[in-house]
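User: Structure with zinc ion, C-alpha cells only please.
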Amino acid sequence: MATSTSSPRQQQPESQKRKDPIDWAEYFMAMAFLAAKRSKDPSTQVGACIVNEEKRVVGIGYNGFPTGCSDDEFPWSKTSVNPLETKYLYVCHAEVNAILNKNSTDVKNCTMYVALFPCNECAKIIIQSSIREVVYMSDKHAHKEHTVAAKRMFDAAGVRYTQYKPPHSQIVIDFTEIDWDSLNQVPATPGKNDTTTTEELCRMETLSIE
Ligand SMILES: [Zn+2]
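Assistant:
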C-alpha cells in the first residue's frame, strides 16, 4: 500500500545525508500538482512542469483563461446550448501555458510532467516544441478521440509517454516545519512610539546580517 511522506523532521545522524528525500520524478510531478492548485476551473485542475536534460525546471503552467480574459467574466461551464458560453473555446491548457511560460530559449529534448494525458491540441504543440517525453498520471480519457489522436501523433513523432505511478500517495507541505521565530533575525519594524533611531536600526541590521 502506498504511504504518505509527510516529511516530519526525521531523526537522522547529522553527519549523514537524509536517506529518504523524494526522487526527481516525484518532485517534478508534485510541482505539476502544486501548479494545478492555482487553477480557477471548478471541474478540472491540471498542472504541467517542463524539465530539461539537466533536471532543471524550465516551465510550469496550469489551465486557465488567457491574460486579460477575466476569470469572473468568461464562462467556466462545461455545457450550454450556446458553445460561446462554455469554457472550451477560451481555456488554455496547462501544457500550452507551461511551454509558453518557459524561461529558456526553447524546450528541446525536455520532459513534460503532467497530471492528465495531453489532448490532441496540446500534443501538436508538445511535438512542435521538440519535447521528447511526456510523463503523465491519469489516462482517464483514453477512450476519447482527442487522446487517441494525441497518442497517434506522439507515436509518429517519436515522443515517448509514460504513466507515472507515485511511490507515495501524498506529499504534505507543512509550513509549520520551519520555526519562523528563529528566522526573525532583524529587529521588528518600529512602531509610531518607538524611540529607536534610524542609526541604531541600521547598526542592528548590520549586526544581524553578519
Ligand atoms: Zn490540451
